[in-house]
Amino acid sequence: MSILRFDGVGKTYAGGREALRNVTFSVAPGEMLFITGHSGAGKSTLLKLIQLTDRPSLGSVLFDERNLSNVTGRRIAFHRREVGVVYQNHQLLAERSVAENIGLPLVLRGMPRAEIQKRVSSILERMGLGARGKALPSQLSAGEQQRVGIARAMIGEPRMLIADEPTGNLDPTLSAEIMEIFAALPGRGTSVMVASHDLALVKRMKKRVLVLSDGELVDDIAPEDLADE
Ligand SMILES: Nc1ncnc2c1ncn2[C@@H]1O[C@H](COP(=O)(O)OP(=O)(O)OP(=O)(O)O)[C@@H](O)[C@H]1O
Predict the structure, then answer these.
(1) Are strands 208-213 and 216-221 parallel, antiparallel or unpaired?
(2) In the chain, N or C: fewer CB atoms in 10 Å?
(3) Residues whose CB falls within 8 Å of the CB of residue 141, separated by 6 or more in sequence, listed in order
(4) Closest to 83 measured CA to CA, from 49, 57, 107
(5) How many CB atoms lie within 10 A of CB 63?
(6) Would you indicate the residue range of the signal peptide (predicted)?
(7) DSSP reduced 3-state for 193
């Protein structure tokens, strides 16, 4: 049983650039893994195929045992509810409070306000942002803003959380702190997949690491094989 399975996936962009070649791996429910590789290795392309912002040219992507090539039209929006996304620059709404930013995905789903408030307070606590709900994003530090981005992606209890270079704008200490937050997220039923070019940082987290090079999956390192590095 897997939440995500790539089976012989290839992606060639218009113009002939082959971004992914014969990529096969699977992710168990609640598993945490990193994906790393040099710039242009194909990390963002792989994440786009999970969000259905792009489609494979070859092979198949299965999410919760469903082939995503059969997910079209209105069903794309339902699929995206199951995939929380954390962005590098967090993309928070500047004029909305932290609590409003985090609750927005639930407002869009029409959830009752009291239930949204309850969930938002709980996730604010969990992210160590308990006192910052009424603040505007600009009043927070870079690390706090990224924690708000993670909270917003998690609030809908997605089956999988994906993040593309979530520490790209942070200094090394904050980057490690944010990666620790990702590493602590699974175990509540959400699988987490974080892309980062920073191999040294990723290896320190002692989680599974997929390594892409020129579009090919060249390594799939188990946490126990990172223990002594
Ligand atoms: N929309 C596109 N059209 C054409 N080529 C693209 C497109 N998006 C990405 N590419 C190319 O596909 C390859 C893989 O890009 P991708 O963004 O997936 O790599 P990445 O590993 O995420 O890199 P980075 O760490 O720099 O973000 C690169 O050569 C890139 O130039």
Answers:
(1) antiparallel
(2) N
(3) none
(4) 49
(5) 21
(6) none
(7) strand
Mean pLDDT of 209-227: 92
Q: Which CATH class is domain 1-82+158-229?
A: alpha beta
Q: What is the pTM of this model?
A: 0.92
pLDDT band at 185 (very low <50, low <70, confident <90, very high): confident
The ligand 1 site (C-beta within 6 Å) comprises 13, 15, 17, 19, 37, 39-45, 197
- The Cα 166–Cα 150 span in angstroms is 9
CA of 140 from ligand 1 middle (Å) equals 31
Residue 68: count of CB within 10 angstroms of its CB: 21
Residue nearest to atom 29 of ligand 1 (CA): 40
User: What ipTM score was computed for the predicted complex, to two decimals?
Assistant: 0.96
User: 97 — phi, psi (to 5°)?
Assistant: -65, 165
Q: Where in the chain is the domain with CATH 3.40.50.300?
A: 1-82+158-229
Range scoring the smallest mean pLDDT among 57-71, 148-162, 182-196: 182-196
